[in-house]
């Protein structure tokens, strides 16, 4: 999906996003800020390239953790210590971005998360780790900073601009929160692109002029569908729908509930309150 951000330069709309008279495309990175994993790509000799991180992986876990001494870890390192440090390991915070604390979806997630979700002064859902509170935008910024550093290590130059993907159903508040995350990470988000549009571009659908296509997107936090109409290489979203609580994380939770019930029935031990075991 991510490489489609750059293939989209064929279309007039995307050309206006990714090019200027005195700036090369390689100065702008494309970032897929996902619920479970994130990745970053750049243009290289006219071809999009997904960059490997320091661990040699093309994707980086969207996980942020804080150790006892206050050190912040992002990505694989944060994920590896989650079992020993569940209450201070933040994951799937994209599900909270732009949401109110009293939101039904937020309240449902609270029951399964090992870390604390608190109500901010403005009523938004924030998270807590090591006694400090963070907005979902701040946590997203930590991940974006990691992706920015990954790109800079590969390019050997500073990255200041990015194109970021978001779910098609994201409302204005959630899109603005994503832009805010970029600003905190010292990245100017030049454009927010819908994930279904990026997926369609990745499969070269922009060549199917005059067609109407359906794109299903099963992600870490959601499952949605978008109906796109293609005209002149430009995608217009005609309709979108989905379930904000039907993604990989939700499937994991259903399996977790089933296994913990079976374990309780066979052993008489309830491990639902053991946050370390649930990791």
UniProtKB/TrEMBL annotation:
Keywords from the UniProt entry: ATP-binding, Nucleotide-binding
Designated name of the protein: Uncharacterized protein
GO molecular function, one term: ATP-dependent protein folding chaperone
InterPro entries, alphabetized: ATPase_NBD, Heat_shock_70_CS, Hsp_70_fam
The keyword DNA repair appears for this protein: no
Organism name: Favella ehrenbergii
């Amino acid at each position: 999906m991510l490489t489609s951000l750059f293939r989209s330069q064929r279309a007039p709309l995307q050309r206006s996003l990714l090019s200027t008279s005195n700036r090369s495309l390689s100065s702008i990175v494309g970032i897929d800020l996902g619920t479970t994993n994130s990745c970053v790509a750049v243009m290289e000799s006219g071809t999009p390239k997904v960059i490997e991180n320091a661990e040699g992986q093309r994707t980086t876990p969207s996980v942020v953790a804080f150790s006892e001494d206050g050190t912040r870890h992002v990505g694989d390192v944060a994920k590896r210590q989650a079992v020993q440090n569940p209450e201070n390991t933040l994951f799937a915070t994209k599900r909270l971005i732009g949401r109110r604390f009293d939101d039904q979806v937020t309240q449902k997630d609270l029951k399964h998360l090992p870390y604390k979700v608190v109500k901010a002064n403005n009523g938004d859902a924030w998270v807590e780790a090591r006694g400090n509170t963070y907005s979902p935008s701040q946590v997203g910024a930590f991940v974006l900073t990691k992706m920015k550093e990954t790109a800079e290590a590969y390019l050997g130059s500073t990255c200041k601009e990015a194109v970021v993907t978001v779910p098609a159903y994201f409302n204005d508040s959630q899109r603005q929160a994503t832009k805010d995350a970029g600003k905190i990470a010292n990245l100017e988000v030049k454009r927010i692109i819908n994930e279904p549009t990026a997926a369609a571009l990745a499969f070269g659908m922009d060549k199917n002029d005059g067609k109407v296509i359906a794109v299903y997107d099963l992600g870490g936090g959601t499952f949605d569908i978008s109906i796109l109409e293609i005209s002149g290489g430009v995608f217009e979203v005609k309709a979108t729908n989905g379930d904000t609580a039907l993604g990989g994380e939700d499937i994991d939770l259903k399996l977790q509930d089933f296994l913990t019930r079976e374990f309780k029935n066979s052993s008489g031990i309830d491990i639902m309150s053991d946050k370390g075991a649930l990791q």
